[in-house]
Amino acid sequence: MSSHEVLGRRVDMPVEIRAATAFMAMYSVPTAAAQALIDYTGLEILQFRPGRGLCGLVFVDYVDGDLGPYNEFGVTFMVRNHRGRGRSSVLGDLRALATGQAGALIHQLPVDGEFTLAAGRGIWGFPKILADFEADHTSDVRRGKVSQDGRLIAELTVKQGIPTPGGGANTSLEAYSHVDGVTRHTAWDMNPSGVRSRLGGAELRLGNHPIATELRSLGLPRRALMTTTIPDLQMTFGDAAKV
Hints:
This protein is α+β, with helices and mostly antiparallel strands. It has four helices and 16 strands. A hairpin with a 4-residue loop joins strand 8 (about 130-135) and strand 9 (about 140-150). The mean pLDDT is about 95.
């Protein structure tokens, strides 16, 4: 078992998140605009239909885990597995989505904890920055607001949908990250329960922060493809490896 020193504390791998809650909205975005944002990683946007990629906005409340309690807001893109760069097609991308072979690039990741910021950047290369949060993970309508230095990044509200058959399924994804000129991939296992999903169901307000400007370049705000609420989420993160 490997371990890492973070701010004077030892973090053993894999890192376990024993209790968290989350809500998210998934958006259709232009492939070209999304690719321009992530070219720095060397990865390729996955296309679920010609000319369109998938961007997810997610608020997570980490209640009990190896890195302590904290809030997080993620801007993610579905990407092709790095082992298949330059060889895929829309049909191949859809097959990858259906079989769990696609990856998720963590493009932006504001958090409100110093320790998780240091661990996220140092262990996995996750692009964590410190920010301020207001979040409601328990009401029928979930609401999250994230700002930095008084500048609004995003405010997202998500209405609950219908229960997902089985309440959710164990999922394993390749999580991609990039800091300091290095792209990495990490095994990311999720065990959700009580999952509810629906078409649409989100309201998004963007502020004047640079991350908000990026999201506007993708044509947001617009109607969400799908929204999801997860009242009970467990996760495991393995060690990162360079792409």
